[in-house]
Amino acid sequence: MPQNYLKKFYFRDYLYITLGLLLYAFGLIGFIKPVGTVTGGLMGIGLMIEYATSGGIPVQMTYFSVNLLLFLIAFKILGWKFLTKTVYGVVVLTLILSVFSRYIPQIIKDEPLMSALIGAMFCGAGIGLVFNANGSTGGTDIVVAIVNKYKNIAFGRIMLFCDFIIIMASYFVLRDWITVIHGLMVMGVMTYVVDMVINGMRQNVQLFIISPKFAEIATAINSELQRGCTLLEGMGWYSQQSTKVLMVMTKRTESAQIFRLIKSIDEHAFISQSVVRGVYGQGFDVIKEK
């Protein structure tokens, strides 16, 4: 059954999220935090508080406490489906940070910029894995999702703005422009690595699916993934036989789930996937008037 097949892959998603969180925590604790660099997001705020209190308030404590407050706000606005993997990510990352803070030493000494940039690579790779599995590390991700629900603003634009403000604000704690510049460089490297891991910044894909089990596939996509399908008439020129073609427009992050679902129904289905620059209408972007 498709549902059982998908459950197996949901379990795999959580494994990828866990691996991503381990990479992120390793980069943060082993490379970035020891050299006093501030990252973006809620983790950056937690680092500033830890630096300002000389370690009295660990970064993981601030991270977990603020996320708990955001969960209470977001639950009513975004619903439990959005928060399921986010709660998992926040809880597991908090535990990993607590363990790594005790047992992971500073990896690179006397090279603060190199240490910060290498840490950014680990953190970016980790976040990319988490995002690829439709997970989240909470913090500004939740804030961005809430804002995006009411305002048609791109996720990346809001997150970049939030990260920039947090890193620039770190000057009032650290009183060192060099460290602030290092933080901006870390943000740039993390953004680039995340982009590399999740295979580009384009968010939408178009799928053409040819299968004799088109009705079962369309019904499963509608019911399991809450995505619409359009049935087109086609004809195979070689066979000279009519056929049905399903066209599906979906978010890039959802395409893997659709492939899994199709495979569970018809392993021999013919699928074409292409990246589209813009999709407008219900469930996607709103057509804007200039």
Question: What's the short story on this structure?
Answer:
This protein has helices at residues 2-32, 41-52, 59-78, 80-103, 112-132, 140-150, 155-169, 171-174, 177-197, 214-225, 255-265, and strands at residues 204-210, 230-236, 241-251, 270-276.
Description:
Strand 2 and strand 3 form a beta hairpin. About 30% of the residues are buried. The mean pLDDT is about 85. This protein folds into two domains: about 1-195, no CATH class; about 205-275, 2-Layer Sandwich (Alpha-Beta Plaits). The protein is built from eleven helices and four strands, in the order αααααααααβαββαβ. It is of the alpha+beta class and about 290 residues long.
Widest beta sheet: strand line-up = 2-3-1-4
Mean pLDDT: 83
Largest sheet: 4 strands, antiparallel
Ends apart, CA distance between termini: 48 Å
Strand fraction band? 5-15%
Radius of gyration, taken over Cα atoms and rounded to an integer in Å: 22 Å
Number of strands: 4
Shape: elongated
Number of domains: 2
Structural class: alpha+beta
Count of DSSP H/I helices: 11
Which residues sit in consecutive blocks of at least 5 with pLDDT less than 50? none
N to C succession of SSEs: HHHHHHHHHEHEEHE
Give the topology.
Elements: H1 2-32, H2 41-52, H3 59-78, H4 80-103, H5 112-132, H6 140-150, H7 155-169, H8 171-174, H9 177-197, E1 204-210, H10 214-225, E2 230-236, E3 241-251, H11 255-265, E4 270-276
Antiparallel strand pairs: 1-3, 1-4, 2-3
